[in-house]
Amino acid sequence: MFGRECCCCWDSQSSLLPVEQPQTFSLPSPLPQWPQGNGNDFATGRICLGEIEVAQITQFEKIWSYSPLFEKSNSITFYRPVEIPDGFSVLGHYCQLDDDLPLRGYVLVARDLAVSDNFVRDSGSDLPALENPLGYTLVWSKDSYLSGSGYIWLPNAPDGYKPMGFVVTTEPDEPDLEDVKCVRADLTDEAETCDAIFSAGSILSKSQLQVWTTRPCERGMLCNGVSVGTFFCSTNSSSGDDLNIACLKNLDSSQAAMPNLEQIHALINHYGPTVYFHPDEAYLPSSVPWFFKNGALLYKNGMNGGIAVDSLGSNLPPGGENDGEFWLDLPDDDETKNYIKCGNIDSAELYVHVKPALGGTFTDIAMWIFCPFNGPATLKLWLWDFEMNKVGEHVGDWEHYTLRISNFTGELWSVYFSEHSGGEWVDANDLEFIEGNKCIVYSSRNGHASFPHAGCYLQGSSVLGIGVRNDCDTSNYYLDSSTKYQIIAAEHLGVGVLAEPPWLQYMREWGPTIEYDSTSEVDKIINRLPFFIRLSVETLFELFPTELYGEAGPTGPKEKNNWFGDER
Predict the structure, then answer these.
(1) Cα dist. 565→172, 354, 357, 366 in Å?
(2) Is residue 325 domain-resident?
(3) Which of 16, 310, 417, 423 is the most exposed, having the fewest neighbouring CB atoms within 10 Å of its CB?
(4) What's the first-to-final CA gap in the chain, in angstroms?
(5) Is 333 within the bounds of a domain?
(6) Within the chain, what is the greatest distance between any pair of CA atoms?
(7) Where are the beta strands (DSSP E) in 436-551?
(8) 272 and 181 part of one domain
(9) Are residues 267 and 386 in the same domain?
(10) What is the pTM of this model?
């Protein structure tokens, strides 16, 4: 696992001082030579968005650092991109907390294809795609003995154009009009704030500063918004609902930067994580065909008894929606039922869905794990742990994690860890790598949620120490997803390239609806606690996740919101 090293000093940039080149994160091993694209532009360093071409810049030089005096806020540093390719223009600057070093970010630079390559504009507009700002508006400034002077400017775009980011200087004079470009409005999309990076100053203070990352408002497999990588800042406490900067839009319908099938296999072989299950895991994964062949039954509402499912799921009702009319379940025979519950890790494989992300500038490789059974929950109440008898159990557990790959370079950028009803994106520099550029995914005991590190993750109130335990550790139970996988869908490849398995079209429930007697079980636990710390059942229920109250049978991958949408 990689440590963090701070490489920026506190002094403001001066013309008398050498330009600081901050340390940037790199993966443990060099990237391989990806297979040739045969016409596609994956990992060529540049992506066409229609009338403009963009490149991803990850090399920066420091402009200015700010560390609030008498405040607990972390210090923040602003950077300008360097090593800009000929003909490309900067769209905005970048910033990052110093505690998060080394640098792990990017900004896009752009060039107008009509100017550079005699490109005929599809829009029919006579206006250039990129234009200088008319001037700048000073958004925030600070003169600090500790940090020196800094000024944050918003480009004033001409009519019909939008700014993509802010510009930072150490001098009070307006930046040069050539420092950044604005983009024609029809080539942009709406942006929103995402993660709060920095906050300093009180609401009543004129020197208050709020800084966020940005992303397209509409995200998912069918959306065209492209993140520029710049930041948004404001001098009030709002989250920037009405952003005065935009993101880009990919108007090239060919999706030429997406990897072809050979490149997808190369990416999975290079990055496929090892999934570790807890040493005490009793409910291991299996392949879907193993689950069917060993006795899974299909039930229909109003029909007595279930019918056997063939190994491919060909006799499952395809398409439609989850209307509650069908569900899968285990056989009635206790011996067979217990056998299936334990899974069969030798047969297990990852089921892979490959899709465009952020307007086709990234590729998301979602890797789904199937477990025939989800075990009961273990509740943590301060110093005590209580294993539930039934609460948390259900048939047919689908969990996943997602690799986000830059289509500019083929570099692993981040991994999404699905954690029951939620999850989180984790940057590559915060992952544990087991071999080369292959990271570790930890699957929690009984629940199979995905986490980036070993340990106990509490689902509930971590402040009070009350919730459901998610215990993760290494063991002899593991899956190497770089070799044990099946690509089940990649819509961008076109019709006929991949044959989706029949069971993927089953949109109903993979297990029966469960109603837990949570009140009875929790009440028994409360009665075992010392009298002076007992809480009511209602109070505890407010702290526990909603899964403890009962749940409908889980649905398959294609019925999940993130199949077409983004992970969050």
Answers:
(1) 44, 12, 9, 12
(2) no
(3) 16
(4) 26
(5) no
(6) 85
(7) 438-443, 450-451, 455-461, 466-472, 478-480, 485-489
(8) no
(9) yes
(10) 0.92
